[in-house]
Model the fold of this input.
Amino acid sequence: MNRALLLIPSLALLLPSLAEAQCPDGASFCAEIEVEGSVSFGGGTDAPPPPPPAEVEVQVDEAPPPPPAQVQVQAQPPRRRGRVVVVRPAPQAPNGNGQVVIDPAPQPQPRQTTVTVETTRTNRVQVRRQQRWNRKIGLTVRGSTMNTSRIHMGGLELGFRFRPARVFAFEVDFGTYGGTDYNDNARREHPVSFNFMFFLPKSTRFQAYMLIGGGMSFAKVDDGGGDPWDDDWDDFDTRYTYIGGQLGLGVEWRISPVFALSADLRGFLRTRVDPDRDSNPEFEEITSSGERRSTNTSAGVTGNLGMHFYF
Done:
C-alpha cells in the first residue's frame, strides 16, 4: 500500500515530460491529452465514481398504437477535445439490439357498437302480403242454370261475400231465372239464398270449396204460354213460394288478390210454402193404374260459373 502511494507523485512528474516528448519543437500541430479519472486500490466500501460521461442522442421511433413504441439509442463518436456529456435515460432494460423499449401510454378501450337487427320489417311484409290476399269483402256475378225433372231455366245471380279468412266465407245471393216449368208453361223465378263456404287448401290460389246453405225462391207461371221474360209481372197467373236447402262443391281460381273465377254444382231440395199449395199442387201425375198423385216438393241441380271481385 505504501509503495502505491509513492508511485502516484512519480507518475504526476512523468506525464508532463511525456507530453513534451510527444510534441517536438517546430511541430505544426500537437494534441493535448487530458486525462480525467481516479484510481482506487484495495477493497474499500466506497462505490467507484461514475464512468466518464458520454454524449448520446436519443431518437424515439414512433410506432402504431397496437405494438409498443421503441426508443433507439444511437451513440456518436466522442469529440477530439472537450468533455463528453452523458445523458442517461430512465432505467430500462435494453434488448439485444441496444434499443430501449418504453411502454407506451395505455390506449383507450375501443368503443363498443351495438347492432340491432330488426326482423319486424320482414314480418310486416309478410303480414301485408297476407292481408292483401285475405281481403274480406267481395262481390259476385254468377251465371246459372236450373234443372229439375221437367224444369229448365237459366239466369243470373248477384252476390255479396264476406270472407274473414281464406278458408271461410259467407255469401248472400239474389238471382233471376227464366224458362219453362213442369207443364211447359212460361216461368220466371227469383231466388234468394245464403251459403257458408269452406275453402281448402289455404296457401294456394286454386282452392276447392264446399258450401252448405238455404234460402227462399219466388216464382210465377203463365198458364197460357207467353214469354218468361215479360216485363209485366202481373200477366203471370200462378205464384209459388219455396223454401229449401242446398249443398254444393266447387273450385275457385284466385287470379289476383282482387279477382277470382269459380265453378260449382249445387244440389237443392225445396218445397212450397204458399197458401195455395194444397188446393193447387205443382206436380201431378197419373200412374199406370189410374191413380193420381201430386206433390209440392222438388229437387234439382244448378250449375254456376262466377266472377268475384274482392275489396
Q: What stands out?
A: Helices lie at 2-22, 120-133. Residues 2-22 form the longest helix (21 residues). The chain has a mean pLDDT of 75. The domain at 128-310 is CATH 2.40.160.20 (Porin).
